[in-house]
Amino acid sequence: MPARGLIPKRAPPREHRHTHGINEHDSVATGVQLDELVSGGETTLHKHIVTEDLLAGLVTEVTADLVLTDAYYILAVDCSQGAVRIYLPAANAYTNKTYVIKKMDASTNPVIVIAAGNDEIDGQVQFIINDQYNAMEIRTAGSADWLNI
């Protein structure tokens, strides 16, 4: 119980902000997220580093034909042994799903990205990546089509 004549103070509401940026000075970190917690004029920053180890968990190295599922995100494709076909799931099976597909080798063998059923990728049933380090980022909003963004 507060002393006579004193009124207990209520804590001010807390505001939570996120700031994302790139840490160019740290060769291990690929990105930084700062969480800023503001309370009554005091600011506390919490730093979360996105490390190469975490990023490695998002990248799948591919050397043979692959049927994509929700578990995949970034594909690093090696076609040095022959053409590699990447089969997309039905676009309407996901909302806001993104895949990044990149050809890593210098061979003349292509990466062939193939839409499911009647789906299309920017109006086509397949998309071909021929050159080393070329990539595509495709996304669906839950419709019957994939967009190369």
Structure description:
This protein has 149 residues and is mostly beta strands. The chain contains 1 helix and 13 strands. The strands form 3 sheets. The chain has a 6-stranded mixed β-sheet with strand order 4-6-8-12-13-10, with no helix packed on it. Strands 5-7-9-11 form a 4-stranded mixed β-sheet, with no helix packed on it. The radius of gyration is 23 Å and the shape is globular. Residues 7-39 and 43-50 have low confidence and may be disordered.
Name the shape in a single word.
globular
- Tally the helices: what do you get? 1
**CATH T-level topology of the largest domain:** Jelly Rolls
In the sheet with the most strands, the strands line up as 4-6-8-12-13-10
* Helix proportion: under 10%
Our measurement of the CA-to-CA distance between the termini, rounded to an integer number of angstroms, reads 62 Å
CATH class assignment of the largest domain: Mainly Beta
CATH architecture of the largest domain: Sandwich
H/E element order: EEEHEEEEEEEEEE
Count of β-strands: 13
Low-confidence stretches: 7-39, 43-50
Concise structural overview:
Helices cover 3% and strands 47% of the residues. The protein is mostly beta strands and 149 residues long.
Notable characteristics:
single chain; 3% helix; 1 helix; 47% strand; 6-stranded mixed sheet; Jelly Rolls; 149 residues
